[in-house]
Structures are given as C-alpha cells and as structure tokens.
Amino acid sequence: MGHDDDSSKKLKQTQNQSQSQSQTGSVSSASGRESTPGWFDGYDVGAFYDEMFENDGSTRPHYNKLRQFLDATSREEFNNKRASADQSLLRQGITFTVYNDDQGTEKIFPVDLIPRIIEKSEWDPVEKGLQQRLYALNAFVHDVYHERKIIRDGVIPGEFVDGCKHFRPAIAGCKVPKDIYIHVCGTDLVRADGGEYFVLEDNARSPSGVSYMLENRSLLKKVFPGLFSDYSVGSVAGYPKDLLEVLKNIAPNSDGDPVVAVLTPGSYNSAYFEHCFLAREMGVQIVEGRDLIVEDKVVYMRTIYGLKKVDVLYRRIDDDFLDPTVFRKDSVLGVPGLVEAHFSGNLGLANGIGTGVCDDKLIYTFVPAMIRYYLDEEPILSNVETFLASDPVQLKYILEQTDKLVIKPVNESGGYGIVIGPRATRKELDECRERVKADPRNYIAQPPLALSRHPTWCDGSLEGRHIDLRPYILYGKSIKVSRGGLTRVALKKGSLIVNSSQGGGSKDTWVVS
Amino acid sequence: MANVKIETGRRKTEMLCRVADSLFWLSRYLERSENTCQMVEVHLQVLLDSGQARGITPRDFWNPMLVSLGDEVLFEKLYPEYSHQNVTEFLTFNRDNPSSIFGCVFAARENARMIRDQISPEMFEAINRLYLTLRQTATYSISQSSLYDLFQRIREMIYLINGIIDATIPRMIGYEFMRAGQFLERADKTGRLLDSWAFAPMELSDAENDSYLVAILRSCSALEFYQQEFKTRIIPRNVLQFLMLSRVFPRAIFFSLSELQRAIHAISGCPTTHYSNEVERLCGLLISELNYIVLQDVIDRGIHEFLVTLHSKIEKIALEFSKQYMFFPVVDPANEPDED
User: Fold this and answer.
1) Contact B59, B82 (CB under 8 A)
2) C-alpha distance from residue A511 to each of A187, A232, A467, B12, B97 (Å)
3) What is the set of domains in chain A, with CATH numbers?
4) How far is CA A189 from CA A113, A129, A357, A465, in A?
5) Chain B within 8 Å of A426 (Cβ-Cβ)?
6) Choosing among A285, A303, A308, A309, which should be mutated to test the B contact, i.e. which has the most B CBs within 10 A?
7) How close A280 gets to chain B, by Cα (Å)?
8) What is the pLDDT of residues B160-217, one digit of tens each?
9) What is the ipTM score, two decimals?
10) A55 in B contact zone (CB under 8 Å)
C-alpha cells in the first residue's frame, strides 16, 4: 500500500461527501463514476422489501443521514472499525455456546455495524400491538390453568392445549403473584413485501438475546459516535432497571427490599453470558441450583456466612429442570422443593411455570382469536398465514403443496427442524410428509415469507440480507416494550434463518423520532 | 442509648459459597500456572548445566519432579516414555493434564467466566487474553528457545492480571478470597520447588549445587535480593533461610503464609491474636512454628522430610478453609487419586 492510495482515498471521500449532500440518493447514482465506487454501487434491492431503499432505488428519508455518513467513510476505515469491534467482542468474551461442537464451543455473535432504523411513527402501533398481544397471552395462560373458559366457549379445542409439549397440568389451580405469568416475552416480528409487520412467533418461556441488544448499542456508540448526534435514537439502556422493577413487583411481601436473583443452569449454558450480564446490570446475585436450598417452603441461598432468604428468582432454566420433585427427576440443575415454595406464596418466579403453551406454533394460530376473546379488541398485529396439519382439509393442502411451503414442528425453537419446501430435495420433502402424516398435531405450514432485507456488510461490500426483529416486552405494573429490539440478520446469502446457532448475526436497532 | 449500631471496619458482604470457591480457585490456578512455568524453567536450566553432560536418563531426571507434583501416574498413562520433549509438553500444553499451564489457565478462566459478574471486566479480559494466547500457541509444537519466550510472556501476563486485581478490585471479601488462594498456593509451591532440589535425582557436585540453587532463585526473581541480603556466594543454608523464612520477600513461604493468615482473618473479622475457626487455628499454628524455628534443626531433621510435612499442613489448611466457607469438599485435580 503506497501513499498514493491514501491520498486518492481522501479525495474520494470529499467527493462523495459533497456529492451525497446534493442528491436525493439513488442507489445506482454513483455508478457513473468508475474511479470512485460508492458503497451502494450495484446494490441490488431485489424483489424484497428493503429497509433502506424504495423499490426505485431511492433512499428512504429516515436513512438519508446514514447514507451520507457511509459515503463519507472509506471502506478501509469501516473495515478497521469492524475488525476492532469483532476483536473486542472476543476479548470481552461476549460469546454464546454452540452445542455439539468440541473445544471451540464459544463463538462471538457477529454484529453487523450498519444499524437498522425504524421511524417512531411506524414503531408506535407495533408497540401497542405487542402490549395488546401480551395482555391476551397472559390472560390465556391464566385461563388454561384455571377455568379454561376459552376451551369451554369453543374458541380453542381443549386437546390442542393439553397436547402442548410445554403444557404443565401439575400447576392447574395454582395461584401466582398478581396473576402475571409472562413477565418477559420476546415476540419475533418480520416484515413482508409491503413492509407490514407480522408476528412470526412468541417466546414466552425465557427469550434470550436482550444482552446483545444492549451490547450492540454500546458498541455502536463507541464505533460511530458521530452518527448518534445526527439522529435522535430512543434509548434501550433502561431495560435492566425495568426488569428489576418487574421482578420486585412479584415479591411475596411488598415491604422492605426484596432479594432478587438470576437462576442460571450454569456456565455451560449457551446464554450464560447473558445471565451474568443481566445479574450484573441489575445488581443482583446470579445463582445456580446448587446455591439454593429449600427449608420449610422458603428458598435460601448459601452464602459464606450462612443461609439468606431469596424472594424472587428470574429463572433461565426450563420448567422441566426447575425442581426434581415435581418435574424431571434426573435434573441436577434444579432445586428440590422450589415449586412448592413458589406456590405457597414464598417465592416470586419469573417467568411463571407453564407459559410454554404460548410458544407452541399451533396455539400461536389462535392468538388473534384470544385477543378478540379476552380483550374484545381487534388485533393490531397480524399473524403470518398458517395452515394446520391437524385440520384434515389443510393437511391435504400441506401434503400437496409441501414443496411450496415452510413446514415447522410446533414445539421447537432456535430454527431447528424447519423444512423450507422450495429449497428441499425430493427426499427431504418425502420424509417431511411422512413426519407430518404420522403426527399432524405437531406440524404447521406457512407460505415462504419474503422477509425484508437490509444492507449488510458482506466481504467488502454492502448487500441485502434478510432480517427479523425481536422486541422484548416486560409485564410489571404495566407492559413496557423495548424501543426496537434485537434485529437478527441471516448473514448467508439468500438464507432466511436468522438464528445465532445457524449462521445468524445481529444489528443495532434504532427507533428514531 | 446504646442501640445505635456503628459500622466498624469491613462491611459483612453477602457472598455465595460457590462464588467464594471460584474466586479462591481462580487465583490458585493462576498462581499454579506461574509456578509450573517456574518449575519447568528451573529444570530445563539444570538439565542444560549438568543433566545432559552426566548422561542421566530423562526418566531419572524428571520422575522425582513429577512425583513431587503428584503427576507421575497421569504422565505415564498419557505418554509412552520419558523424554524432555514429552515432559515439557505434558507440563505446558497438555489438555488432559489439569495442572499443565494450559490446564491451569483454562480452569482459571472457567472460574472467572462463572463469576464474571463479580470481577472487573478488565480482570476478565486479561485472563481471557492469557487463555487465547495459550490456545493459539498450544496448537503447534514449539522449540525450546521459544518456550522460554513463552514462559516469559505468560508470567508477564500473570503479573498484569495481579496488577489489575490490585487496581480494580474493592478491598472486600471477594478480594480476600483471591488473596487466600494465591498465597496458599504460593507457599505450597515454593516449598515444592525447594523440595525438588532437596530431593534431587542425582548427586550434585558443589558447582552443580550452586547452579541448581541459582536457577531456583532466578525463577523466584530472588537472586538480586538474596545477594543484597547475604552478600555471599550461594550457600544452601542461606537460600533456605531466604526462601522459607523471609518475612519480606513475596515468594518466601513465611511471607506467603502471613498473607494467607491476614486474608482469612479479614474474612472472619477476627483479630490475628485469636482464632475463630479451625482454619485460623491451623494457619496460626504453622506460622508460629516457622516463626520460632531454628534452621539447623530443620537441616538436622532432613529438609525433604520437613518440606513434605509442610505440604501436608498446607493441604489441611486448604481443606478446613473449604469446609468453613464453601461447604464443598476440596476437589483439587492435582491431588486426586488416579483411577483407571
């Protein structure tokens, strides 16, 4: 690399800067200038909704400042920032664990430095829709473990509820503080062709990823401080404090300062970094099952000076492993007697037991009906069109059109077990049909979604990649939605799977006013 | 009225037993990795000075050291034969050896990871960096000269970590658990280093004896301070006096035990003139023994015997410490009986 290179680059920067200020920002506009290729030369919007560009290639207005900023940034400068960001994530150990992989089990969750930007006016109805959805889901959980009115009234077949993998008949009739079950919900949203937001799934057990939302923000502030002063970005930093309030809200005795702790399966769990992060940010202890002991239906943690009472647990352990006396007997992660302590009113537990019914993709199809049933309102956010294999007519359709549909098992998370019809081999399709026929209750199908795309750094240039969005919704004294959330991006070209375990990355998400 | 509660001294902070255990072991493992560096450095030095010339077999040379580390059964399980290369590899990089340098650093990092909400981010990052350095290096074999460079780097990184601990960790209970682990391990390992000389595999000529002791002093960064204190050539008696009984030299056994005592009394809040539990009693007993001992008695009774007894006393202190605060039995992989 010679000096000449450097000086020409500087020249290029100034040119680009003045150029971008004077034009409206058509994607192909810079392509005429062969000597100074712009960031978006040859950028292909494709047949998808692009978050940054209109179909005709012009920049959406709320992305203008980002566009100008990028045009004033050289590739080399950008690449250096990118490399140092990756290094700092690895050094800080901001990693997740990939199962079934030895030694190099810890990977960083790649962050794409190009932020996703959402206008507040566009976000406000989404926020309302998410609040509405969580009220209904929570009412549903309470109902299925008590009166089961929604079943008696014929809105949802009882066998659908009872057949959920995560339905917990053992807790029927048990009371929880303030009737709140889903304290933390992560609802995955996608945008399709027209830019409308759809709900893809609800995660009402223990949604993960919120630490990445917070870390991405602090990373971007370090890397692109200037850009923040151009935009007015809604803060996400209050999340840990809000979560702590949600947890204190379910403490057994409202007097005094309740002792809150985060219950983790341990340092080998894929989300352990996040558990530590949240405990630290909230200023509470992080505990494992072996740190806790139940005596006379009260939970204590073992400290160096003796036992100390615990009032609320934010648990990141599945129901199954929580208490070997109630659920899986072979669980060594859990605490014997914990469930009894909880239902005796001596321990607040978030999320509540049995909320996994909402994660079932068959139950998901009934959420709009739940909203109408419990709240007497029209759903603000729509579901993705879904076919139920459990319905004979729809099953027939699914079996005929398998190659045109996305087939999903109803009770898996993390993108496991999904068959994307248009990309599957004949053999995969046949096997898929057999599985669906053998167990129709456990499969649904959706038309492939043309997920929206976003410019993403791919080996030296920016290309469109498919994204989704997971906001985090907290249910305490009221329901609070994170501003934006975690945008996940499928880094592989053409891929629709955004899960971190399968080659996904993430982006900082800005709600701007 | 007398019921105004005045907070005196250190606040009794709540701390999970598991966290205390991790802090204690984190610093023990870090200290142990440094000590293993020292041990290997000394032996490679002695080997260069005399071992090879005398035609002593690798087995006769290394076996006593592995016995004193309690690692000989594992070594013989993992390697077909004793060779300088095999033993260094076993002690430095081997991932199946929990007390290899890699094993110690890995374990230190695992403990740090488990309690990363309790330590400063700078501390975690420094430990993580040490681990990443070793993981990169450990993937290919490495010549003897670059081995010295590697040891040098590892030790510098450990000094950095200790500096970061000093600069960023509040002087509360967690800090004391780390100090306790560090100095307990150090007292033990300085003892074993001396024992490797006292129990040397070969008859040493005077010159060889000197160079062995110089290697030990150098590995403890003690050569210059030894010379300042004694202003004589290297005499075994003085070296023992210095590394066992110095009250001021930070790697000396007596100094290390005093620091251990200070830390465990800071945890309980009991003054060192008394004791409030078994671990404090045993520690005080051992310190007063060393405090009033006459070096000639040790030499008469046999240095090796004395150091072996010292080791078992330190192990007993570690056991009582865990019983008192962690409620977990001590599981030190380096002392585990080997099973088939």
Assistant:
1) yes
2) 17, 8, 16, 44, 52
3) 8-72 (no CATH), 117-376+468-512 (no CATH), 385-446 (3.30.1490.270)
4) 21, 11, 19, 16
5) no
6) A303
7) 5
8) 999 999 999 999 999 999 999 999 999 999 999 999 888 876 777 888 888 889 989 9
9) 0.72
10) no
